[in-house]
Every structure is written in structure tokens, then in C-alpha cells.
Amino acid sequence: TREEYMNTLNGFKAKNNFFERNATSWLPLNNVDIPEQMDWRDDGLVTAVKDQGSCGSCRSFSTTGSLEG
């Protein structure tokens, strides 16, 4: 199967019934006010988009992007 093929590629060795025994259910949160939308820029949680250009600093831009979210 596709799942078996992918497990072979990534080295994960699942035991019998691993996924069935370790399954979890998502439960909705009660009494929590979650906004319909949120713009992280309004709260200063992310910075503006940067242009890497052709300077070859892809590692720096990638690291910064992953840290900022």
C-alpha cells in the first residue's frame, strides 16, 4: 500500500495496531472566545515580506521565515 511504501522511505517502523491504539479525538473548546479572523500584522507578530533578490542568502531568509511563523 501507499502507507507501507511511505513508511519504508521514512524509516518509521510501526508495530501492529500502532495507529489504532494511539488515536486521539479532537474535541471543540467550550467557553473560549475565538475571533472569526485575526491579522497577525496588526499585533506586530510578523514582519513585512522581504525580497531576497539574488544575494544568495536563502538560508538566512529561510531561517528567519521559519522563526517568525
Automatic annotation (TrEMBL):
Q: SUPFAM superfamilies from the entry?
A: Cysteine proteinases
Gene Ontology MF terms in the entry: cysteine-type peptidase activity
Q: Which GO terms describe its biological process?
A: proteolysis
One of its Pfam families is Peptidase_C1
Task: List where the protein spans the membrane.
Answer: none
Q: Which residue ranges does the record assign to the Peptidase C1A papain C-terminal domain?
A: 34-69
Q: What is the official name of this protein in its record?
A: Cathepsin L
Annotated organism of origin: Nephila pilipes
Q: Taxonomic classification, please?
A: Eukaryota, Metazoa, Ecdysozoa, Arthropoda, Chelicerata
